[in-house]
Amino acid sequence: MTVPTGRRERKKAATRQKIAETALRLFLERGYDAVGIREVAAEADVAVTTLFSHFASKEALVFEQDANFEQGLARAVTGRAPHEPLIPALRHEVHAMVRHCTADGAAPIWRMIDESPALREYEDSMRLRHAETLAAAIAADPESARSATACRTIARFVLDAYSLGREAADPEVAVNEIFRMIEAAWEATGPA
What we know:
- With 192 residues, this protein is an all-alpha fold.
- It has helices at 7-30, 37-44, 48-54, 58-62, 66-78, 86-101, 107-115, 117-140, 148-167, 171-188.
């Protein structure tokens, strides 16, 4: 995540963080469905309009790192050094995402997500959006030279690697195993 530099940006980031932390605490204490937006806003000491200026929906409060993950995936493609291979850069980013999502204290959050149809649906749509953003970054990369279908497929594989790695008993081993398959698929779609 980029550190805000100006006072106003730091204040906005602090407000956003406070809202997200408050919402998560309330959701975990009382259950996602039992907590309303107005309660979150009141507990965070902000107006409902302020809450919605930071988060588009109640579900977005749970997935506070959504934009950072999406940007990180795109940056793994666009920010790598010239001639640095694509797949290892993506593997590195997915490892970072999985570490974040399997850190101490994350299990109750994932249980809450698994128990809520609204949160599962939001996560699914978020993953598809991330895959499309990643596919666009891969397709725009002059070194990729792959079809749009190949770029979209690899992007979805990468997002699946994140999901499967996060759920695995040994996330690091799982991500590495999945990325060996992704690497083989990427090579198979390469220019003849």
